[in-house]
Request: fold
Amino acid sequence: MTALEGKRILVVEDEPLIAMMVEDMLHDFGAIVIGPAASVAEALALIEEAVLDAALLDVNLRGERSDAVADALEARGVPFALATGYGESAVGVALAKPYGGDRLVTVLAGLLESR
Amino acid sequence: MMHDQGPAVAEGEADPARDIRLAEALAGIDWGGDERHARALLGALPVAVYTTDAEGRITYYNQAAVELSGRRPELGSDRWCVTWKLYLPDGTPLAHDQCPMAIALRENRPVRGVEAIAERPDGACVPFLPYPTPLRDETGRLVGAINTLVDISERKQADRAIRESEARFREQFENANDFIFTADLKMRLTSCNPAVTHALGVPLEALIGHSVSEFVPAAAAERNRRILSARPESRQSVRYEAEVNGPDGEVMVWEISSRLTRDPDGTPNGFHGIGRDITERKRDERRLRLLVDELNHRVKNTLAIVQSLAHQSFQGDDASGARASFQGRLVALAGAHNLLTSRSWESAELGEVVETALGGCAADCARFSIHGPPVPLHPQSAVTLSMALHELCTNAAKYGAFSTPEGHVDVSWSVSDNDEPMLSLRWEESGGPSVAAPARSGFGRRMIERALAYELRGRARLDFRGEGLVCEIEAPLARLAGKDCRPGG
Reply:
């Protein structure tokens, strides 16, 4: 039983291979993956209709910044972590790519706790 | 009376102001007394003085008059002037019978404020101020005149030097590519060079008397004011970057160096500024930063994709250990990249490299300690060292000090103080299970003993002691800092 067991995690990631791996990692920790969404529009649609416990958000979606998604998540009170290749200092709660499963679960568990 | 006063001035450099005072004093003396004494006094003066009779014939001249005129006048026959030829300041010849002394005698009045140029027989010209003054006897009858000639050639030269210097600075001001401007204390412009009007695209009239704030974006105006008023006591210039409204609505960036100007008693009376347009440079810097950020982002994304490929490739229970090792190494590599990115890939601090490597592995900071002086590392050395430290961490987590709750890792280093300084770094585990050298040399060990030693041009030794693993690394500091450019790195 992990902190992510049964939690509904939205994954927003435009790179399919990375999305697949994140999905696998989250499954391994017992989480339920919502998405993955590959664009801002897809992500916004999922936020609209799904019940979410937390989200993992790629900062850059095919050249489009995911600020609108972050705003929508914030408006709904869904905690999220930003996955970025720009280094961890760039934004608030961040996951520097590439990250391992341990780091992923630590960050997400922290978000769920802080809710 | 004059007898007991002696010469009024000391010997020394030409001093027109003093000589003029002297000329006025001589003009006011009552010459009716002892002529012998008067002549002795006049002869000692460093200022040209001569006297004439009522008809203007020279009756006396002193040595200074000979020096100024470059000739010895004929007593009793030369009239009005000791000088050879005379000119007005504009170069017009002046006849001797029209000279100030002739006028003073003819009109029986002192003549002042006329400047003339004396040409000597040798061709040299001396600008001077004459002070011709009529001499009268007790009854008031005109008996002659005394004239003092004050040499003003040095003053003229100084005036010319100032004019030339001003013309030179004016030229620089007018033609400078840099912006030069002055403002009063309320930041209203008092002068601007053409570079400013050109850059702002407005005529000079639209600038002079106008506030600087009219030409900068509102936010920048407040900031400029703060910067400039920050240190009113300072006499040093302040250097800052300011945004300025360009002619086509585009915002320019100027690098300005400005300082308070003061009046002679030290009270601030305005500002003086020199600036240059660095808009292009700022734009290039921003573009480059974006490019570097983007490239960095892509490298990380690519590493994440590689990680994902490995994840998909090593499926199944047998492979999970290999998958975790691979993932750990990839994350360690990315960590070193992040560290270097935050330092613009210039160099990394050894302490930070060690901390990043250990922090990524041992979640609890109490499990390790780090001691050592600052050592800058070349990016490539930093990456290799990060990877080696990651292997040590992984090994400690599996078999060593980090595999038990009590274990501890101590990393310390020092730099030798000689001609070729060497770094000695020591990784020492304690409190973990008893260790023995592994039968097979794995990747981690090869990474440390071969790759690291090769990269650092040094030695790396692993000692599997019963009480815990010790790793000792020695490398020349020059190589670590990237100052040694021998191939192979």
About this structure: The CA atoms of residues 358 and 489 of chain B lie 25 Å apart. The longest helix of chain B spans residues 279-313.
